[in-house]
Structure formats: structure tokens, C-alpha cells
Amino acid sequence: MFIYNVKINGSKTFKYFFAVIVVLVIIIVGIVTFKVFHGANNSFEKSSCTPQNPISKLTTQNYASVLKAVHENIDDYVGNKISFSGYVYRVKDLKDNQFVLARDMLISSDFQSVIVGFLCECKDKLEFADYTWVEITGEIIKGDYHGDMPIVKITEIKKINKPNEEFVYPPDESYIPTSGII
Description:
The chain is α/β, with parallel strands linked by helices and 182 residues long. The protein has helices spanning 10-42, 63-72, 74-77; strands at residues 55-57, 81-89, 98-106, 113-121, 133-144, 148-159, 167-168. The chain is built from 3 helices and 7 strands; from the N terminus they run αβααββββββ. The relative contact order is 0.15.
């Protein structure tokens, strides 16, 4: 039987333990700092909600997600060109050359819907009547309508037939329709 006598020097052990802790803290602070600054550099990239093509085409599947993303981050989307369809919807306090290119968004399983859309602006007064279906191509600009608002400045507009898929769907599962709340 062997007996080992181990003598531990308390002050040296504490110094080594303290040095290891300091090195670990420095490494963690370095990693966190790198991630913060690296993440800040990536925050200027465009959101993945819209394709990075020269002209982004909105569909019934991505319409509400893009609409939500653009309204929440207007500055990130200024200058983007988009193309989509909807019907002309006018509100009383809009200018003669402005209208909402609207879609009906289903908010419940019993086909209740709300009108959603982008505020659009033409060079001249719009010749299409309310509820006329049109397809537009335009550029997103930052405007003012009861606060900051993305506006689609129309470069092309044409009349189309009412599509088979006229409804759009909420952006995600966390959407809470305000019109249903009493």
C-alpha cells in the first residue's frame, strides 16, 4: 500500500485559480464584443422578407409579411422596387393622385377579413374607379400620412381581372386582429 502525502499551497492555488478565471472572463468579453460589433455590421443588410431582385414581386403568400416588414422598417426599404396587384381603395383624406392598393386579409376561419394595403401615389390623378383591380410596379419612398408611412410611387399601372386568389393571409401566428377585439 502506497501513501501519498500531498501538500497544497493555498496562496499559489488561489493565484492560479484567479488567473484562470481572469483569462476566461477576457475570452468571454472578447467573444461578446465581436458578436455585438459583427451583428451591428449585419444589421444594415436588407431583411429576408422581400427577395433581393431588382423588382420584388409580392404574392398572396408573402404580401402581409412584406407589408408588415416595410411599415415597421421604412428606412430599410426606401428605394426598393416592388410589383403587386390589388384593388383601388380610396380614403377621404387622401390626395387626388393617392389611393391604397388594397387586398382583403383573412383574419379568421369563418372568412372575416380586413382591408390592408400600401399607400400608392401616381404622377397624375388616377383614372381607375374604386374596387378596380390593377397591377402596379413602383418604388418605395418615405412619406407622411398621419406619421411616417411607406408610399409606393407608381411607375407602371395596368388594369387586370380579379384574381382567383384575392385574399391574403396574416404575416405570422402572432398576428392579433384589432377589428375583432371589442
